[in-house]
Structure formats: structure tokens, C-alpha cells
Recover the amino acids of this structure.
């Protein structure tokens, strides 16, 4: 599946190579596992793709995260306009490698850039986002205590590129505040029997841009812990991103997803490919 | 492998990277190649503009020789060189052009291309971008 998508991306790239937008390379970020522009697990204030003011852009991506007892596959796409609006779709398939079976979730994302320009203003770039999540295999989340099969996450993200910071390199900092009811980002449903309140969580990323094409980053994602049957922990990752050109980027990383559904210390690889037009 | 080990390794390499990059004693002006280097950047950027359909129309009525001289003066003064910029403020000289974010991105893209071609170090490029980026608020949408 992923191989086919890569081939498809490759064909599209060669035929549409001249359509890239005006934004500076890497400033569209990568695609998160939820489909929004950002790092790997944290949505940023940047808008997907390379469309600057008055320009349209589109992206498509495939991501795989493989940890000890689970494998997450994500396919998604986005379009954006005016470097202000971003619409995204992602389908997550979370394979329960040990237990057998899989949990699928669809995520519709909307992001609006409200203030600041990542590169050009002292004020960081700010964006508001929402992610509507719909679980498609709710029997298991329901059995372990989740209340709802749908949830709406709201977030405010701030991103800023700081020039000439570490060894003359630029650093991109991002902080995101999210209101969510999700258990394991929605893969285990939303809320629990006793509690249907929003939880406020913090997410952050720091990225060092070695040059225009290569970046190294770390991310942290705070998560609620609402289901009695098993502990849920915060997520972390480190990654290297290669923006080959404005059409193609690759991300490889190492993720620590903590305890998931009673399986402790879930760690493993993160790989992602994104095409942009 | 423990993630903390990886974090520590990453930090170690970062520290190493900072270690070898003791800021050169030369000024940014010298890192850009002094008078000749800045003349090359200016000429390169003019060529980029000329070939860029997105922004070339903004220069239709521009006195290119004067623009070349002022841009070189400005880059020289900004980077700490022995020059005095003799033009008007950025606000004055861009009023009526309605320079958009996309226009500004296109120009920065062109500048980066020229600096890459001239093998200017990433550090010097970023120092110059740090000086030019904040001009956006004075240049755009006027």
C-alpha cells in the first residue's frame, strides 16, 4: 500500500514539478499523524505545503510508526490556500500486532492562521485548529471504557523561526495548547464513563535546521490519562527531516509512546513521506 | 535503545556543532565577500528578479542602475561594511507597490538561491536573513 503510494507520488512529482508555491523550503513543515502540518506528532502554526499569499497548495503523505506491540499506518492529504487556510484528511490504521485486529480512525482537520509570519515578524505565527475525529472500530474502545466514538480537538499553536541561533543555524520553536477528550489521541475513543470534560494539554517541538534541506527535531506531546483499564503516558520523539525539494520530503525518527493499553514502554521507528504541489 | 540515550546523543552532537562554529572573527560584511561579494549578490539578485514572472512587474518603472547602487549600499551597511545607505526608508520606497507575502517570499527565495550559488556559508546567510526578515513589516502591503 505504502509502496504504491510512493510510486504514485513519484509519478505526480515528475509531472507537476513546476507548480510549487512561493514559500521558502521547509516552512510548510511535515505532515503529522493527524494530517495537520507540523512535526510528527505535534501540529504547528505553519500551513501545509508551499502556497504563499493568494496561492493554493496540496500535500499527500504516508506515515508508519512501528513500536514494540503496535503499528500505526496513516494515509492523508491536505489542501491549503493563501498561507492562511488548511484543510486535511487522515486515515489511521492502528494494528494490534500482539492481540490481533486493528483500530481505524478518520481525522478531518481545519487550521486557520490568525497572526504573525513564521519568518518575518517578531510575533510568532499563530494558528487555531480543530480536528474532528471519528473512530471506525469502536467496539474495543467501548469495551475498555471509552464514552464516545467521535471527538473534536481544538488547538492554538505558535511557531517561530529564529535565525542564526546554534552554530549559525536557524531554530524553529513550536508550542501548542490543545483541548481534547481523546484517549490515546482517539485510537481508544473519547472520554470515559464518568468524565466527558475537555482536558487541556501542552505539546512542543524544537527543530534545528542544519541547512535549507535538513532538519533535526525533538517533540513532546502531553496526553490525558482517562481510562481505568490501562495507563496512558505522554509521547516523545526525535526525528530527522530531509526536504529534498519543494515537492518531496522524508522524515525518519524514533518515537517513545509510553504505555498503550497495558503494553508498557512502546518505542520504535517513525517514517513518513510527503509530496507537495 | 532508551530514548533518553538518543536525546543525550543528539545534544552531544549539537554541542559539538556549536563547538566547531566559534563565530568567525570577521564581520558579516567580510563573510559575504566584502565589496566584490556584495556586488555579486546584488547582480545575482537582479538577474533572479528579471527572470521571476511573479515579481518582475514590480520593477517595471524602476531605475535599475540606481536600485543596484542602493541595494549594494544597504547590504553593505547592514552587514557592518564601510558604506552609508543613501536611499529612502523602506516604507517610503515601497509605498504604492502593495508587495504581498508571496512577493516577499519570492525575493527571499531568489536571494537564498544567489547566496547558495556564491557558496556563502549557512551561518552568514542566516545572519543576513535575520537582518532582512524584519523589514517585511515596512515593505509589505503598502
Amino acid at each position: 500500500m505504502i509502496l504504491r503510494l510512493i510510486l504514485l507520488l513519484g509519478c505526480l512529482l515528475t509531472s507537476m514539478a513546476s507548480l510549487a508555491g512561493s514559500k521558502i523550503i521547509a516552512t510548510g513543515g511535515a505532515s503529522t499523524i493527524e494530517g495537520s502540518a507540523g512535526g510528527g506528532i505535534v501540529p504547528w502554526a505553519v500551513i501545509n505545503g508551499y502556497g504563499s499569499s493568494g496561492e493554493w497548495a496540496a500535500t499527500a503523505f504516508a506515515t508508519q510508526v512501528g513500536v514494540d506491540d503496535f503499528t500505526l499506518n496513516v494515509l492523508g492529504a491536505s489542501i491549503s490556500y493563501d498561507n492562511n487556510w488548511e484543510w486535511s484528511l487522515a486515515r489511521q490504521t492502528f494494528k494490534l500486532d500482539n492481540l490481533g485486529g486493528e483500530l481505524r480512525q478518520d481525522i478531518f482537520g481545519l487550521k486557520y492562521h490568525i497572526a504573525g509570519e513564521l519568518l518575518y515578524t517578531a510575533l510568532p505565527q499563530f494558528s487555531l485548529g480543530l480536528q474532528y475525529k471519528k473512530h471506525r472500530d469502536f467496539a474495543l474502545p467501548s469495551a475498555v471504557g471509552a464514552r464516545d466514538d467521535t471527538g473534536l480537538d481544538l488547538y492554538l499553536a505558535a511557531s517561530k523561526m529564529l535565525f542564526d541561533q546554534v552554530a549559525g543555524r536557524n531554530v524553529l520553536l513550536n508550542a501548542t495548547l490543545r483541548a481534547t477528550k481523546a484517549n490515546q489521541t482517539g485510537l481508544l475513543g473519547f472520554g470515559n464513563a464518568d468524565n466527558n470534560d475537555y482536558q487541556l494539554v501542552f505539546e512542543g517541538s524544537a527543530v534545528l535546521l542544519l541547512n535549507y534541506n535538513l532538519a533535526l527535531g525533538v517533540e513532546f506531546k502531553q496526553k490525558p490519562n482517562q481510562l481505568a483499564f490501562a495507563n496512558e503516558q505522554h509521547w516523545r520523539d526525535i526525528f530527522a527531516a530531509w526536504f529534498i525539494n519543494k515537492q518531496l520530503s522524508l522524515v525518519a525518527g524514533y518515537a517513545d509512546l509510553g504505555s498503550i493499553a497495558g503494553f508498557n514502554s512502546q518505542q520504535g521507528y517513525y517514517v513518513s513521506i510527503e509530496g507537495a504541489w | 535503545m532508551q530514548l533518553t540515550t538518543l536525546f543525550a546523543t543528539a545534544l552531544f552532537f549539537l554541542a559539538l556543532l556549536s563547538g566547531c562554529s566559534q563565530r568567525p572573527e570577521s564581520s558579516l560584511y567580510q563573510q559575504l565577500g566584502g565589496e566584490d561579494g556584495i556586488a555579486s549578490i546584488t547582480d545575482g539578485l537582479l538577474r533572479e528578479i528579471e527572470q521571476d514572472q511573479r515579481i518582475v512587474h514590480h520593477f517595471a518603472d524602476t531605475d535599475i542602475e540606481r536600485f543596484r547602487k542602493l541595494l549594494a549600499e544597504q547590504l553593505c551597511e547592514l552587514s557592518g561594511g564601510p558604506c552609508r545607505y543613501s536611499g529612502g526608508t523602506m516604507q517610503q520606497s515601497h509605498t504604492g507597490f502593495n508587495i504581498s507575502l508571496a512577493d516577499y517570499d519570492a525575493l527571499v527565495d531568489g536571494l537564498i538561491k544567489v547566496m547558495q550559488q556564491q557558496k556563502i556559508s549557512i551561518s552568514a546567510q542566516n545572519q543576513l536573513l535575520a537582518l532582512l526578515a524584519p523589514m517585511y513589516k515596512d515593505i509589505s502591503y503598502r
Q: What stands out?
A: Chain B has one domain: 33-139. The mean pLDDT of chain B is 88. Residues 33-139 of chain B form a domain with the Globin-like fold (CATH 1.10.490.10). DSSP finds eight helices and no strands in chain B.
